[in-house]
Every structure is written in structure tokens, then in C-alpha cells.
Amino acid sequence: MPSPLILALLFYSLICVAQSTVFDEFISPGVEYRLKFRYWLPDASADVDSVVRDVGEIAAVGAGGLEFLPYYQVGSQPTNWSEYGFGTEASRTIFRAVMQAATENEILLDFSIGANQGQGVPSEPEAVGLALEMAYANITIPAGESFNGTLPLSTQPVTTEQFMHPLEEFGQQNISAVLAIEVLGQSEGSPSTFVIGRIIDLSDEVNPETRSLSWTPLSVDTGSTWRLMAWYQRYTNQRSVSGGPDARNFVQNGSWIVDHFSAEGAKKTTRFFDDYIVPETRDKEMLSRVAKYVWEDSMEMNSALWWTHGFAERFRVSRGYDIKDCLPFLITVDTFWAATNVPYGETFVSPNQTLADGCNDDYRIVLQQCYEEYVQVTLEWAHAKGIEYSNQPAYNLPLNMLDSISLVDAPEGESLGFDDNPDLYRHLAGPAHMSGISVVSSECGALRGLAYTQSLQDLLWHIRRGLATGITMNVLHGYAYSGTFTNTTWPGYTVFSYIFTEMWGPRMPAWRHINDTLAYVSRNQYLSQTGAPKVDLAFYQYAAPFAKKVYENSNLEQLGYTYDYLGPKSFSADIATVEDGVLAPSGPAYRGIVFANETKLTVEMARQVKKFAEAGLPIFIVGRTDFHITSTQGDDIATVNHTMAEVLAMNNVVILSETKELPVALAAANIRPRALLTGHGAADWYSFWRSTDAAEFAFIYNNGNGTKTVDVDFEGVASRTPYVLDAWTGLTAPLLLYSLDGAHVVIPVTLAPNQTTIIAFVKRGCRDINSLSIPAPPPGTVATMISGGVKALKSLQTGSKSHMIAYLSSGSSSIRLSNNKMLNFTANPPSPLCLSLWNITIHDWRSTDDRYSMETAIKPLHYENRELSSWKDLDPEELMATSGIADYIVEFVTPSANTTCPQQRLGARLHLGPIKDSVRLWMNGEILPPVDLASGSDTMVDISNHLAGAGQSNELRVELASTLYNRLLEERDIIWTAGAPASHASTGYFDANPPRDYGLVGPAWIEWLEIVEVI
Questions:
Q1: Each residue of 619-628: b (16+ CB within 10 Å) or e?
Q2: Which residues pair with 1012 in a beta bridge?
Q3: Are 934 and 1015 in contact (CB under 8 A)?
Q4: pLDDT classification of 13: cutoffs 50, 70, 90
Q5: 3 state DSSP class of 945
Q6: Cα 406 to Cα 431: distance, rounded to the nearest angstrom
Q7: Tens digit of pLDDT for each residue in 231-266?
Q8: What is the pTM of this model?
Q9: Pairing mode, if any, of strands 838-847 and 884-893?
């Protein structure tokens, strides 16, 4: 048996190998970590070669895959969908070509399980597995009158959302319940809200064949107004794709929304996909090889009231009573799509609102159970093919999103639907952290306004806000089919009638620079999926539907606390145990639970809270303490009340009146952030933390409006070596400026607006590993303080030795070392050099003479010895409508360094002023590393190692790419998609937004520095 020493050395060597692997893979992450594009196909008439070329373009810029979506936009059909609809031979041909292209380009394929958002498939109407609803019709019985006649049938509610199809008025209606409801009056301030008194079930008195009923209120009710409500189970008859104009079979007749609350709904979808999209064995085999996720978008569908076969009986078994008396109270805005309206313009409330709320809670609990059946069947179908399942879980419907996230392999949110709010992304990330799900996806970059207006900096703003709080995979919205299409002009097919961003691809000038941005994002995504997340706090939340509710105070973020939102299900996860006062120590390792005015609990959640508190987990109750059950069931009510009364009496349960008290209470409980932000002005900074055996990784993001330096106090890492990971280049460098405070490392971090950094704390002693990316450790002595003109500290490798060098501006500077030695310097570099006159070539992008060609015509325009200004100011007559790419060239001479010391040399930092567009730089014909696309007032690049010798000339070239907005603005009436001009849906946007100020505007100058060796 090996000795303990040998086993220890073996274990330590394995950690070192893991460390080497993590840092080496950071340079070039695998496809599974790389950003993806949502790919929109207009319909199956698309040119197959163009589709294949698009897949190649996506791969060529470094993306990891595509989310393939046959879009079939709502509205008039641009082609004959009887021939080119979803499930036709033409659609099979394209899908096969996409699979082959993804295979050949070695990227991953995610695919929509149905057309459009994926909510439906072709089917015979009114077939089992299609969406059902409970609709109603009602008759008012004035006081003193009675009813004797035929109950009316229901009508479909009106769909007001332009991106959805209407609910069509046909088909069988099965009467399910008839209720007489006493109308007590109308709610104050809401004439469409009616207060209900008594409810009488008349279902047994109605002839279901004739719908005839004779009913008179009791004599004591002669002063009351009543309504008769007849409830009908029927199909929603809502399409997700329009039928073809000459449909001869159900495949040609478009797609119908399927039942998302039953196994049969999932089977309806999966069987169609098997039978009509990949019917051949070769296709099924190729799909299993190339596909990563089968995927469904957010559920965009309507109903009078969500229902499924057998729902009433399921409700009775689950909740212990008949749902009939609850039906009127279910007609409330929160029950319907996106909580935006009600089906018939009216809602109903009770004087006993606890009763009505209980009805809704119970209805949503059972609906959630039905939804989970749908998801589970789809998941099992995918896994049987060796594929995983991703969807945008639950939101838009009256379901519990937090408890639905763990149902799928890769939950997906969206920057648009989550309002680009970092706090909302925590609702996705938290349950994923507790379920061991590493891929938390975001449909990223959609913004209502106008296509062709998003710069790479804009895009990074959307992406970074998600990365900061738990998004680990971004699917860009999106890449549209680039080939020719009916009645479509240059720059190409554009989804959403031009009103949403963005149409990435070669049609966008910045596409030539996008590979740098994708590599940056992919490296961040790789680290965000590596190891285990570490999060400071867990906020409990019960929300059905998803309410976008967040902690309404920035006092935690100001200090650097990280936190997740968790639903009841997460607190019963396998890893939900408490050790040493920490919840889920093998996972996110929360140090406390916070209830911020969240008092609705399941029985299991109440029991778990008591169990956690008894195990010593700190629990903080902010605001309300009136905990109550998510149900109307009597025994459960008593259980929750008794259990929580015991919890509130425990010593480690802290009750607070307001959120402003929480930071002090956390400090009193010795709970501090893992990355504590000290000083002032860091309210808009975010961080995440990932932990591996090899290293601890901290990501930090400045979401503020100004460049700031903040001292960040990292907990428990003083025994490790800190490195900075550059996500733009993939390189790792030792950190040279920090101080130790016991077990903590304090690092001054400077970030421009919308800028990020990654700091790794690495186990020491692994340099015998042949790592590609980790340099030797820093010198044994590092800097703890700098002052004066010290602009930067960098590491220089000479053989096996590491040296620290400093970049100094004019005047005196001081550096205090970790051995308490103070070093003083005086520098006298040359004066700054203004780069005032440039040779500028602007490549104007526009259509060719054939406007229906997707080729871009490029007209070069030359300007010599010109000062920097926006394009439209440089030449208002010629450039006002120009979009495209510009080359800026300037020459300058390297001055002599004002020093004779061999340990000192000349350094230089290039300043280009604010840059809103994408940019790439060359010095003396050599391409420079990617420029960090932040949003500060100055873009600065170190060019010290690229200068010609003293007295020699240098050529600097700056390539800048704009959006297409100015060209689109100029030609908005003659740029078309499927016959619709850009101006049709976007007139207001064009009127409010004049031509944009593209270009390099400066000031541009070179800051000369002295580079000195410190150690």
C-alpha cells in the first residue's frame, strides 16, 4: 500500500494538472463553452447553399454553435407555405443541410422542436395533444328576474399581441360547469372588476345536450343581481404557423399550439418531429451526433383559461375539493399570458380575498404539476437520442419559474424579457446552482427599437450584465438567413419587421471584428461554468407567475455581497444540507437565508427552514413575518403556522423591520462578502466567484458610468498566488499590486464603465507542470502601494526569473514593496505627442445596382491630412448617410528616451478618446491584441513593445466599423423585407434618431512613459 506521503504527493500533482488544464483551456475554450447565435430561417424556400454558408460563417468567427429556428413570421406569407411550410420535404432538406454543415464545421446544433417559438406542430385540428382551455359565457339576471332558456356558447378571447395568431372560432365545446354567481358590485377604481358573493353550482340542472336551463333565485335573493356562467372545455385553436393557401393535408395547413400541460402535448410534438423532420434513420443518427439541445422558446400563446384533459379531477385529487367554485376567481390578470390582460375584459374578486387567493394558488400548483409532465416527456425523448433539453422555463404563464428551472438540462432566459436587470438573472442562476446545472443560457441582445443599430459595445453591455450574476452561456439574438428571399432587398432578410436588434453576419460591418468579442465572451463563459459557484446569500421567493420581484435596496451590492433567488424546490435539493453554518457547502455554499417580505410557504419549505435553523444556519426575516401556506388545505395551514412560530423563536433567526438594517445584521452574524468592496462609489459593481481544486476565480464588473478604483478584499485566499486573466487575449499574468490582511488579499481594482476583470487565486507550487498559459510566479516581493506617476506594474519574464517593471509618467513616483521597502523614482519621458492629422479612407457600404442582390457594394472615399471628426462632419455632403468601415493611418517618430540608465527604456500608451464602434489596430504592419471594448471616455492601448527604434518612423493604422443605421435611415423606404419597407414599422424611430456620429473623433495622442525595472 502506498505511503501517506506518496498519496499526498499524488493528490497534489493531480491538483496541479487540473490547474494547468483550466488555464490552458481558458486560452481557447471548447465549442461547448463558446457563444452561439440564434439563426432565423424565413421559411423552407430559402436557398440551401446560402443556409450552409451561414453555418460556415457562424463557425468561422469562433462561435460554438447555432440555435436553429424556422421562424415563419406571423403575417402575410411571403411564399407558398403549402410547399415550404414546417414539416414539408423542403423543410427536411434544409434541416438535413444544417445538420451536415454543423458537423463539417465542428460546431454544435441546438434546434427548435417546432416552428416559430417552438410551441406547435402541424396536426389535424382538435386532436388530443393540442392546447385546451376553459372558456366561459355569462348572462346577467337582474334583481327579481329569472332565467329560462339556452345557455350561450363561449367565444374565443381576442388576441391583441401582433406576434401571435388569433384563437380561431370553431370546434366542439363541452359544457363543464354552470355557476350562478351573486354580483355584489364593482370594485372601487376598477369598473371591470366585479365583487362576487355566493356561488351556486347549477351544473347538474343543465341538459348538456341542449344547454337548456331554468333557474330562479331564491325569494330572499330578489334584491341581488346574479350572473349565470357557463364554462366550456374546448381547444384554443391557436396556430403557431399559418397554413398554406392551398393546403391539401394537415402538414400543409400550418402548426397548432400543443398542450403544454400534459404528456400528450409533448408526445404530439416529438412524434411529429420524428415522423416529419427526421424520418430517415440517417437523419436520426446525424441528429444524435451533432445536436446539443432540443429547445423551446418562451411560451407565447393565449387561452381563456389554461386547461388540459382531466384537469378538474386532478385538481380534486391533489387539493381535496372541487375546482368549480374557484373558476370565477381564476379570471385574474396574473393567470394569463405575461400578466398583461384578461380574456373577456373582466375579473372577479371575493370579499374573502384569502379564499380567492387560495383558489389561485391551488390552481397554479396543479397547473405546475401538469407542466412538469410535459417537460419530463420532452426531456426523456431528448435523452433517448443522446440530446439534452433546453427551454425558457415557465415564464409568461402562471407557473413557478424558480421551481421549473431544475426540470431541464439548460434553462434559458433572455435579456429582453429580464429587462437587462442583473438582479433578475439571479432568479435563473440560483435554482441552477442548487441543481448542479452549469449551463444557464440567455437569449441575449434583443432590444426594441431598430435592427442594424447595435454596436459590439452595445452587445457587450447586454452580455456582461448577465455574466455578472450567473448567466454562463449567451445565445446572440441573432443571425438571419443571408440569401436572396422574395421581395427582399439588401442588406437582407430581417426578422421582426426591423423593430428588434440584431441581424449579425457579414452584412454588418463589425462582423469582421466580432471574433475578438466572441473569444472574450467564450473565455468568460468557460470560467463561469468551471468548478462550483460560491454565493454569499440565498433569498427565498415564491412566485407563480414570475413576478420580476427583486431585493429593493442596493446596500448589499454596495458592499459586494452576492446572492441568488431560490424557490421552495431548491431548498429540498439533494445538496440542501447545512454544515458549519453553511447551506449547500458542496455547491454555492450560502452563508444565510433571507426572507424579504416573502411569507408564502409550502409545508416542505417550512419544515426545511426549521431544519436549517436547528442546524445553525443564520436566517434573516426582513419585513413581514405573517408566514402562510400556498394552499387552502386546513391541516397544512396549521403545520406551517406552528413550524414558523418555532423558527421565529430561535436564536439564529434575526427579525428586521427594513432592508436598510440587513447589512448590519449580516456583519453582526460574521457574514461578509467573499469579495468585499471597500470605500465608496462601488454601488454598481458586481462579482461572481467560482471555486475549483486548482484555483478560486473572481469575476468583477463595473456597471457604473465612470472609471473607478475600488479596494476589493478577497476572503480566505492569502495562501494562494493571485493572477489576472485577460479574457481578450487568453493570457494570464501575475498580479503585482496587493496587500495581505490576515487570510485576506486586498487588491485595488480599476475598471472603466462596462469593463470586467478576472482574478484567479492559484495554489502554489505547481510550476513543474508544463502549462501553456501560466507564467512563473511573481517575484517573491510585490508592491503593496503606489503613488505619484506610476501608471502600471507589469511582469517581465527573463529565463526562469520574474521581474517587476513599472510604467512611470513625468515627475516623482513611489512604490512600497511587501517587505516594507520604499522605492522612489524620478522620470522625465518626452512630452505627449498629439496625433492631429490622419489619412482617412471610408468604405461606404450600400446595395449594388441590383437591390435584390444580397451583395454589398463598397465605395472608398479618401481624405488626406485631416483632423479627426465624425464621418458626417468630415464630409457632410458625401458621408451623411454612410455606414461601413474606415481606415485611419498616421505616422509618427519614436523619440529618444531621456535616460542613459540601461534599466530604463521608453514606453508608450496610445489614447484614442471615446470609441462607440468596433475597432482593430496595427502598428508597423503588425496587428495588435484586441482592444477592450469598454464604455469610458478614453480608449487606451499599450504600444510600448511595438515601437520602432528611437528616431525611426512608425505607422499606426486604426480600422473602425460602424453599424448600418445611417444607410438604413437614408434608404428606409426602399429597403424591404418580404415586401415591407423598413420605414413601415419604424417611422417613429427614424423620426427620433438623426444620423449617428460614426468614426474616430479623438482626441488621439501618445503618452510617453519611462519603463523601469523595480525588482
A1: bbbbeeeebb
A2: 806, 904
A3: no
A4: very low
A5: helix
A6: 6
A7: 999 999 999 999 999 999 999 999 999 999 999 999
A8: 0.95
A9: antiparallel
Note whether 710 and 682 are within 8 A (CB).
Answer: yes
In whole angstroms, how far apart are CA 332 and each of 4, 236, 472, 499? Answer: 67, 18, 35, 31
- Contact 66/37 with Cβ under 8 angstroms? yes
For cell 444607410, name the residue: 967
Residue type, 168: E
Residue-wise pLDDT for 755-791, tens only, equals 999 999 998 865 434 454 566 677 889 999 999 999 9
User: What is the identity of the amino acid at 931?
Assistant: V
Q: Where are the alpha helices (DSSP H) in 865-996?
A: 871-874, 876-879, 965-970, 982-992
Strands (E), 615-743: 619-622, 628-629, 653-656, 675-678, 685-691, 695-702, 708-714, 721-725, 732-734, 739-741
The residue type at 172? Q
* Bridging pattern class, strands 918-923 and 926-927: antiparallel
Strands (E), 924-990: 926-927, 940-942, 953-961, 976-977, 980-981
- pLDDT of 644 strictly over 80: yes
Buried b (16+ CB within 10 A) or exposed e, 971-991: bbeebbbbebbbbeebeebbe
Say how many Å lie between the first and final Cα of the chain, rounded: 47
**pLDDT reading at 73 higher than 70:** yes
Q: Record the cell numbers describing residue 330, joined without a space.
A: 381564476
- Quote the pLDDT of residue 141: 94
> 606 near 641, Cβ under 8 Å?
no
Angle at which helix 89-104 crosses helix 48-60, to 10 degrees, equals: 30
DSSP β-bridge partners for residue 190: 187
As a whole number, the mean pLDDT across the chain is: 94
| Cα–Cα dist 100/837, whole Å | 51
Q: Are 970 and 903 in contact (CB under 8 A)?
A: no
Cα–chain-centroid distance for residue 565? 16
Cis peptide before 491 (omega within 30 of 0): yes
The separation between CA 92 and the C-alpha centre of its own chain, rounded to angstroms, equals 30
Bridge partners (DSSP) of residue 959 are 887, 920
For residue 133, give the H/E element and its range: strand 132-141
Residue with cell 485611419: 888
SS3 (DSSP) at 47 = coil
Distance CA 327, CA 197 (A): 14
Q: Which helix (H) or strand (E) holds 22?
A: helix 4-27
CA distance 847 to 262: 50
Can you tell me the distance from the alpha carbon of 110 to that of 67, in angstroms, rounded to the nearest whole number? 5
* Residue 622 grid cell: 426582513
Name the helix (H) or strand (E) containing 790.
Answer: strand 783-798
> What's the rounded Cα separation, in Å, for the pair 467 and 698?
12
Kindly give, in sequence order, each residue whose CB lies less than 8 Å from that of residue 729, ignoring residues fewer than 6 positions away: 929, 930
